[in-house]
Fold each of these.
Amino acid sequence: MTAPSPAPHKMSARDVSVFYGDNHAVRGVSIDIDMDKVTAFIGPSGCGKSTFLRTFNRMNDTIASARVTGEITLDGEDIYSPNMDVVQLRARVGMVFQKPNPFPKSIFENVAYGPRIHGLASSKTDLEGIVERSLKRAGLWEEVKDRLSDSGTALSGGQQQRLCIARAIAVDPEVILMDEPASALDPIATAKIEELIHELRGRYAIVIVTHNMQQAARVSQRTAFFHLGHLVEYGETDNLFTAPREERTKDYITGRYG
Ligand SMILES: Nc1ncnc2c1ncn2[C@@H]1O[C@H](COP(=O)(O)OP(=O)(O)OP(=O)(O)O)[C@@H](O)[C@H]1O
Ligand SMILES: [Mg+2]
């Protein structure tokens, strides 16, 4: 009899490196990402957090000088395999950026666009339902339900960011990658995004890059500390902040550098 296999991870990176020309920006990183958890990536500026995050939905493909080695899987499937449909991949592994980037279209269209191109709605009513559900889940519905035809760019920064989250949710992703999603927002809008991350956690695997260690401690269950392209330490957020195993982690969280 064979032993039962361990619970599968939603995504796994194995020995992943990223090069920009000669610059070896991410150095042999292995990590597992799981459903129902928020994983935070922290570390000093330039340590490779954004670069590594982008390997999870092949956003580095859009950067001509970038080259990725190693393996990344989604439900056990190699996402860099030639069989992988990248458009499909980016719907399954959605992304929210530092600067809110709504399309210059109506609030409704911002959310409806993805489900429409992916053929997720069978009718107009169905599409309207998806838009409403996504905006509700992103905590924006009450603020915009009477102005769905207004431009997405006319919203406040915090509202725009929640619109971008609604847009990511609308195509029914499994993983949501967030690169400093609140760093351009004021404290109230930031608190809303953090609250939202809490609520979304039960449905998705969420990975968030943040410069703010308090934020990492508030929103995540797991934290990965990066330094000079290396993953130095990865563990339960509480442990990493209270009892780091590595000297470099300790130096960083106590503010000695970064
Ligand atoms: N598009 C790019 N082209 C070339 N080099 C890049 C590019 N993006 C990042 N790099 C380089 O890769 C390294 C890691 O950068 P990255 O943006 O991933 O760091 P980061 O940890 O996200 O930093 P920050 O906290 O400032 O956002 C740096 O040396 C950076 O100069
Ligand atoms: Mg970055």
Note: The beta strands are 11-20, 23-33, 38-42, 66-74, 77-78, 93-96, 175-179, 205-209, 222-227, 230-236.
Amino acid sequence: MIGFAGYQVIHEQLSLGTMVAFVGFIDRLYNPLRRLVNSSTTMTQTLASMDRVFEFVDEKYDIDDEPGAKELKHVDGRITFQDVSFAYDEKEAPVLKHINLDVKPGETIALVGMSGGGKSSIVSLISRFYDVTEGRVLLDGMDIRKYQVRSLRDKIGMVLQDNILFSESVKANILMGRPDASDEEVFEAAKAANAHDFIMSLKEGYETKVGERGVKLSGGQKQRVAIARVFLKNPPILVLDEATSALDLESEHYIQEALDILAKNRTTIIVAHRLSTITHADRIIHIDNGEITEMGTHEELMKKQGHYYNLFQVQQLDS
Ligand SMILES: Nc1ncnc2c1ncn2[C@@H]1O[C@H](COP(=O)(O)OP(=O)(O)OP(=O)(O)O)[C@@H](O)[C@H]1O
Ligand SMILES: [Mg+2]
């Protein structure tokens, strides 16, 4: 936990502006951190996670811009995976194998499949948390490695499995989506995210301090703050990695409603665990063991009675 505590101290001292610059870094931290936090319940696991800390400290800070990388300005929102393979570690087997996928501007696609199949890995390539090992990821026909990584991430809004909030006010956390926004715009974003009412019920409203050192928000509340941040940012591309952990029913309803609105008029990629939330997606892609095994609409895939159909049946039985 050394790394995490250290990071807390660091960002306590940062101004909002610096914090925004820090978000790219947090993105990069996100995966190792999540694994670290998830694996610290028992002593043996803690020891295992200590290894992770040191591994992480040795890791490169972030992906570097290529020489001559351009600033990404206008985005139509077409995302193309061209024969993409990816391994987290060159010495290990690839976790994604020959992925070919063309997402049209404004399209909503859902990635589904068994745990460990590679769904989160696919979306992490779009924001260049990692670069592909083979093949290319294109945005509007251009290899994303040709762009400055900061300018690329500016165009992508993300709501992830665990949303890390800063030890700052709720308002500062939302403002990170667009630091120059007015109070009115922050409130509007929070309303659209179905977060305004619960924020107003906090002791100090929007000024309430949250995160590690402040009021502890529920998973669903944190997620709604993260959604408000993305509403404020208003990016042309949206990436949602749905929470696996069961949210309370009320939160789930509010979140779903907000996300459906958020997904309108932008290219959206949703990693879905609960299939009931994505039956309306333009296309559903079933991923298994690093490969695309099925692709189609809900109706098409149900008719096919293959992987998606089976997954759907299992979830119907569970609920
Ligand atoms: N940071 C990482 N370093 C090394 N291996 C990783 C890392 N993240 C994921 N993996 C491995 O890559 C494979 C694909 O994982 P990924 O997280 O993409 O699956 P997923 O489909 O999102 O699963 P889930 O439904 O559980 O979220 C798994 O074998 C996983 O162990
Ligand atoms: Mg995942």
Note: Residues 244 and 273 are 6 Å apart (CA to CA).
